[in-house]
Design a protein that fits this description.
By secondary structure, the protein is an alpha/beta fold. Helix content is 51%, strand content 15%. GO terms for molecular function: transferase activity.
Length: 270
């Protein structure tokens, strides 16, 4: 079948849509599970991972080593889950973290601000004024985070295959549209698609193993052949040589591994 990512603003009913889609298609559904996986596997407190994918980087920590590492851990955990296919992921930046995989249906759920405020007032028992302030602040944080890390705006409809506004449409209408789109031929998993996500998983494993000590690197993988792009001085360090030997022995899926220094990262590098 396929993988579905559902992006949404807070209190726009995206979580409910995701749950109903997963139930109808009999897909697994994940969101916070990815953070728990990353927290357990990489021994990082969950709150630090939550902050890494929610809080917009400040000027002083925009290129923070730890933040880069946390994003790499989250991405690796999501891709490992996505290897099994038949998955709905609703969470921040799923459409970007799985970018380039052909059988991923990227969905954006939106609702007008007044509707979101009403949803928050009803659920959290707060005033409309407080709800408005919190929602606008959250939207701003998410946009800054995405722009800082990926140079993209969450409101850009070109990032999604399907954008659904549920102001007039019902939740069930949205579910109908998503399920219909997920069943189209262009979104079915192919052998090439399986290979591409398997390669992405290998690249993510390698980056997650290196990024804490070597934060400014890119990794690409094709048919198990891993290319690591680094600064010149990093590529010559004894620490890296030791790390690479460990990676070759302990990360599955690597056929060949080599490093490149002093060159621009290719577009497919993560």
């Amino acid at each position: 079948m396929s993988i579905i990512t559902i992006s949404r603003g807070s209190y726009s009913m995206g979580k409910t849509v995701a749950e109903k889609v997963a139930q109808r298609l009999n897909f697994d559904i994940i969101s916070r599970d990815v953070l728990l996986d990353a927290s357990n596997h990489f021994n990082v407190p969950e709150i630090k991972l939550i902050n890494a994918i929610h809080d917009a980087p400040k000027i002083l920590d925009r290129y923070s080593r730890s933040k880069n590492a946390y994003i790499a851990y989250i991405r690796s955990s999501l891709v490992e889950r996505a290897l099994n296919d038949n998955l709905v992921y609703h969470g921040l930046a799923g459409h970007l973290l799985l970018k380039g995989i052909p059988h991923v249906l990227k969905v954006r759920i939106t609702e007008n601000l007044e509707g979101r405020i009403a949803n928050m007032v009803k659920r959290d028992k707060i005033s409309p004024q407080e709800a408005r302030s919190l929602i606008l602040a959250d939207d701003s944080q998410r946009r800054k985070w995405t722009r800082s890390l990926y140079g993209e705006d969450t409101r850009d409809t070109a990032l999604y295959d399907l954008s659904i506004c549920i102001d007039k449409l019902s939740i069930d209408n949205a579910v109908d549209f998503i399920c219909q789109a997920a069943g189209t031929k262009g979104l079915q998993t192919t052998e090439q698609g399986r290979q591409e996500i398997a390669d992405l998983a290998v690249a993510c494993r390698v980056k997650a193993a290196l990024v804490d000590e070597f934060p400014n690197l890119g990794v690409a993988c094709e048919y198990g052949n891993v290319l690591i792009y680094m600064k010149g001085r990093d590529s010559a360090s004894g620490k890296l040589v030791k790390k690479l030997n460990n990676i070759r022995n302990n990360i599955k899926g690597i056929n060949h591994l080599e490093t490149h220094a002093g060159v621009e990262f290719p577009l497919d590098a993560i």
